[in-house]
Each structure stands twice: as structure tokens, then as C-alpha cells.
Design the sequence.
């Protein structure tokens, strides 16, 4: 698949996990053509992967080239005059629409994106003349600075075009909450001209079934407040949770390989568990600028995480402080710090406003406290409970350590070294759990089998050529392990609308060397059957054709071995196979 929209995650293969969310939203997009999808808000704090997901959804939808046209726009966190915003919003939509219709990806990143006359010429050149009326209408409103009419026209452009053409458009608007915070009626963007109700214009637009919206926001409490007040009942909420343990481990190994930061099976497990599957934390640890970073030992992990939590250069600390500083601009800092620290201390349960007043001796009315708590919720540094008078600390292993490291010493006698000791103790506890699980095949040679083999192929297989060949049956006579340009899983189900997943895809750098397409089974006792071999070969044939591979071998690693029928089938058809633990060492 060609990724026509450059994804900010970097190399497309760095996109990890999120299979459940990706499947959900691909189905949601597919349902648009049946007019069944309702506008939805995707909610999570910064760096949890929302933008990566939306950009991937755009690329998949564009690649599928079906009845649904993707439109992606990010509202920037910078002050902008509404006329300039409307022009940029509209031209982004028109250029993306033209790119989809013409299949010319250069329209997704035009050199010049402000001249409507140039767009008119391009539309005529591409034979999309039905766009001219809309473009000229917007051009007229821009020239006359008819702000309300202009916003109405550009906001409704996707819906209007879809309805007139009998088409379907998915509108993906990233950082939606900034519509009411960063756009100004006055050209000089003076503070008294902020358009604090701009998002409210979507009240009817969001109900469109031919052009529904998928919006996201990194300020969860803020965006939910805006949607509930200005767009009640127009959006469903979809919360972006942390990744599963398996996906977290996969991300650790993938980032370890890509950024050349060694980890062990043990420390990969520790990172996945300590971060509770947060892609933000995993990425921050693996990409930390800590000079003495060593992620192969508990002491190294502790030192790296301490750096990320305590250092002003740490990504974890600097990101959380954005949220904290936003909250403290609105509320009395001392009381707010006391409240957050208390909730961190008791984050395993709900706390009432009465308890906060009593325990912290807060000299304020219930209404004043409610206002303060609302500000802290909107800044995402505390959570709202089930009722309007209950609150809870952020459910996170790491936030409370960041917050305490910055503020606890202001309020009580406190030595920040305690936090480092807590981190080390937590890693040691996880290490004990890991060793308790070592006896279970699924957690050592099984659970990590895929990742161990992938890493082996990427880094050491060439050096271990003779040894690996000696424990692998049915290899071609001229086969040798080689340098591979791509080594990872292959997941084609999302892009192609079918269940198509391959555990190992190692593409040889040289066309004269053999690439490898492989299957890994990590179960404890059941041997690999002939039926499973046949199912794997069906995937092998599909991937070989899709990737246009000539020199490629099928390979199956099955820790418990193979049935007699499967062994015979592999030998007759030339399928390389092994159950030797050398592959996992």
C-alpha cells in the first residue's frame, strides 16, 4: 500500500497495534455508504496515537479508492484570523478531493495553497468543473470578508458536495477543541475577538450521514465540555485506551529495532507492564535522550525513567507539565496542588468534595470548590467520578511521580529520591512476576517467540547462517540467510478488507537472495497440522503476489513440532520448518 499522506509517526511500519480501534473505525467508515455512521469524537491525551490512527485511516481509505472520499484537517494550536483559517480549511479539502478523484498524490502537498484562481485552473484542467460554482462562491465570500457566510460555506462544503454528487465523504478533524480557542474574528487576532462558539456551527452539519465527522482532541475534558455544551447529542464518544500487553511488547521490540536501542525479553516485559501499554510512555523511554540509557537492566530502566520524570528535557515531564500549567493558569495553585496530590495518593478510589474540604482544610464554598475541580478536569490532570461530587486521581503509574517530583516538596517535607526508589521497587516487583511466569511457555519462549525470531532475522541470522540452516528443514540448496531491508509482521487485513496477517515478512535487500514469509506458533502442546500448513500457504501465495516476490521461501516455526501429515506435506511442497529452540536464543 502506498501511504500518500505522509504520516507524522515516521516510517509506516512504526505504526503498532491499535488493531481493535483500526478495525472499529474502518467499519465505521465503510458503514458511511449505507448512511449508518454517526459523527464520533476520538478522545485521549497527547501522544496516545490519535493522529497516527487518523492519518492511517486516511491512507487506507484513499488506497481503497472506493465510494468514500477521505478528508483530513488538523486545527493548529496557533492564533489565526478566521478568514485565513476558512481559506486554508477549504483549500485543504478541495486539494484532497482532487487528489482522490485524479489519483495524483501531489495534490495532497501542493507547493502553493492560497491562490483560488490557481485552484480554478487546476479544476478545469482535471475536468472537475462541477467544483467551480462552489470555489467561486467561496472566493467571493473571501474577497468581501463575509465571515459568517464564509464559515457556513466552507464548513458545509464536504456535506454539500457529497449530497449533490451522490458521494460519501469522511471528515476527520484533528484537535477539534482549538476551533473555539485559536480562531479570531479580528484580523489582528485581538483577545476580545476570539470566536468562542465557532464549533457550534457544526450543530446541524454533524448530523450528516453522507459526510459524518470523526473529530479528535488531546484535551479530553475540554473537548467533551465543548461537545456537550455546543453540540449536545451530535457525537458519540470513543475513548482511546492504552494498548494491550501484547501490542505494548510488540511496540517495545519494534522501536528497539528501529532506533537501535537494545532490550531483552525481560526488560521488554518490564517496560510494557510499567507503562501500562501507553504508547507515549513506551516511545519516550525507547527514544529518551538520557546519555547513559541502558534498557537491558533494571538499574538502566530505572535511571532512564527517572530522567524522563525529573529532567526538564524529559519528554514525559514536559508533556505532562503542559496539562498542569494549563490548569494552574485558571485556579489557585496552592489549593490545586494539594487537591491533585491528595487524589494521586488515593487514586485507587473515588473522593468526594466533602472529603477534600475536610482533609485539606479548604476554606471555600462548595460552589467555589466545584469550579476549581471543573478546571482541573478540563485540563486532564484529575478525572471526574460517576457523580457530580466525586473525583479520582489520574489512573496512571507515572503521572503522580511527575507531579510529586515537581510540587510535593513545596507542600510537605519530601525527598524526591523516594520516587526513584519507588520506580526501582516497581521494576523489581515486575521482574519477580516475570520470572514466576518463565515456567509458562506462553510467557518466555512462546509469548516472545515472534519477536525473538524477527530480531534474529534482522540482526544476527546472517552471522548465524550455518547454525540456523542446520536446524531448519526443507531449505533450498542455494539458500543462505542474508541482509533484509524489511523485517516485521505483515498485516494486510485493514488495508484490504480481509483477514490477512503474516507473522514474519523478511524482504531481502538483494533480488538474488531469498526473502522469507513465515508463521510462528507458540502454544504449549498442539502440533502444527496439515490444515494449518495449507491455510498458511494460502496467505503465503497472496503475499508473494501482492509484493511481487520471485525469490521467497515459506517458513513455519512451531515450538511443539508438526503432525506427521504436516511434516510430509512440508517436505513434498518445499516448506521450510523448524521447532528448534536455537531460533529463540
Sequence:
Amino acid at each position: 500500500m502506498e501511504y500518500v499522506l505522509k504520516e507524522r509517526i515516521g516510517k509506516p511500519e512504526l505504526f503498532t497495534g491499535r488493531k481493535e480501534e483500526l478495525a472499529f473505525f474502518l467499519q465505521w467508515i465503510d458503514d458511511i455508504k449505507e448512511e449508518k455512521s454517526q459523527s464520533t469524537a476520538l478522545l485521549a491525551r497527547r501522544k496516545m496515537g490519535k493522529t497516527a490512527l487518523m492519518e492511517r485511516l486516511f491512507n487506507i481509505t484513499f488506497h481503497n479508492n472506493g465510494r468514500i472520499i477521505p478528508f483530513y484537517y488538523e486545527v493548529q494550536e496557533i492564533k489565526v484570523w478566521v478568514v485565513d483559517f476558512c481559506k486554508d480549511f477549504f483549500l485543504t479539502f478541495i486539494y484532497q478531493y482532487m487528489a482522490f478523484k485524479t489519483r495524483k498524490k501531489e495534490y495532497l502537498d501542493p507547493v502553493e495553497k492560497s491562490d483560488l484562481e490557481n485552484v480554478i485552473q487546476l479544476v478545469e484542467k482535471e475536468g472537475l468543473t462541477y467544483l467551480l460554482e462552489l470555489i467561486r462562491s467561496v472566493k467571493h465570500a473571501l474577497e468581501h470578508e463575509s465571515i459568517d457566510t464564509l464559515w457556513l460555506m466552507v464548513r458545509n462544503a464536504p456535506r454539500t458536495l457529497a449530497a449533490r454528487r451522490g458521494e460519501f465523504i469522511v471528515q476527520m478533524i484533528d484537535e477539534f477543541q482549538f476551533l473555539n480557542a485559536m480562531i479570531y474574528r479580528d484580523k489582528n487576532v485581538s483577545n476580545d475577538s476570539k470566536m468562542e462558539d465557532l464549533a457550534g456551527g457544526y450543530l446541524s452539519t454533524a448530523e450528516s450521514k453522507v459526510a459524518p465527522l470523526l473529530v479528535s482532541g488531546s484535551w479530553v475534558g475540554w473537548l467533551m465540555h465543548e461537545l456537550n455544551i455546543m453540540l449536545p447529542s451530535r457525537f458519540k464518544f470513543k475513548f482511546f485506551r492504552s494498548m494491550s500487553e501484547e501490542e505494548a511488547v510488540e511496540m517495545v521490540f519494534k522501536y528497539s529495532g528501529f532506533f537501535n536501542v537494545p532490550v531483552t525479553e525481560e526488560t521488554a516485559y518490564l517496560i510494557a507492564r510499567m507503562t501500562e501499554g501507553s504508547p507515549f510512555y513506551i516511545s519516550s523511554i525507547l527514544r529518551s535522550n538520557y546519555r547513559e540509557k541502558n534498557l537491558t537492566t533494571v538499574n538502566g530502566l530505572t535511571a532512564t525513567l527517572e530522567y524522563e520524570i525529573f529532567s526538564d528535557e524529559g519528554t514525559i515531564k514536559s508533556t505532562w507539565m503542559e496539562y498542569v500549567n494549563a490548569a494552574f493558569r485558571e485556579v489557585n495553585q496552592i489549593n490545586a496542588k494539594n487537591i491533585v496530590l491528595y487524589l494521586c495518593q488515593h487514586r485507587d478510589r473515588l473522593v468526594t468534595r466533602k472529603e477534600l474540604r475536610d482533609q485539606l482544610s479548604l476554606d471555600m464554598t462548595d460552589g467555589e470548590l466545584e469550579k476549581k475541580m471543573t478546571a482541573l478536569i478540563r485540563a486532564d490532570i484529575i478525572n471526574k467520578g460517576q457523580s457530580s461530587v466525586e473525583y479520582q486521581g489520574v489512573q496512571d503509574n507515572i503521572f503522580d511521580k511527575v507531579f510529586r517530583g515537581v510540587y510535593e516538596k513545596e507542600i510537605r517535607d519530601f525527598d524526591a529520591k523516594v520516587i526513584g526508589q519507588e520506580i526501582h521497587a516497581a521494576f523489581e516487583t515486575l521482574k519477580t512476576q516475570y520470572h514466576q511466569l518463565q515456567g509458562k511457555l506462553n510467557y518466555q519462549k512462546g509469548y516472545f517467540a515472534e519477536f525473538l525470531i524477527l530480531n534474529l532475522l534482522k540482526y544476527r541470522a546472517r552471522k548465524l547462517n550455518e547454525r540456523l540452516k542446520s536446524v531448519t528443514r526443507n531449505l533450498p540448496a542455494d539458500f543462505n540467510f542474508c541482509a533484509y531491508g524489511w523485517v516485521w509482521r505483515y498485516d494486510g487485513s485493514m488495508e484490504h478488507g480481509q483477514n490477512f496477517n503474516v507473522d514474519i515478512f523478511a524482504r531481502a535487500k538483494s533480488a538474488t537472495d531469498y526473502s522469507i514469509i513465515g508463521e510462528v506458533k507458540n502454544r504449549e502442546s498442539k502440533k502444527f497440522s496439515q490444515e494449518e500448513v495449507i491455510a498458511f500457504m494460502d496467505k503465503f501465495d497472496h503475499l508473494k503476489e501482492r509484493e511481487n516476490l520471485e525469490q521467497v521461501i515459506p517458513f513455519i516455526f512451531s515450538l511443539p513440532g508438526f503432525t506427521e501429515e504436516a511434516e510430509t506435506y512440508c517436505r513434498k511442497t518445499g516448506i521450510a520448518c523448524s521447532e528448534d529452540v536455537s531460533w529463540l536464543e
User: Anything to note?
Assistant: The chain has three domains: 12-239, 242-437, 449-584.
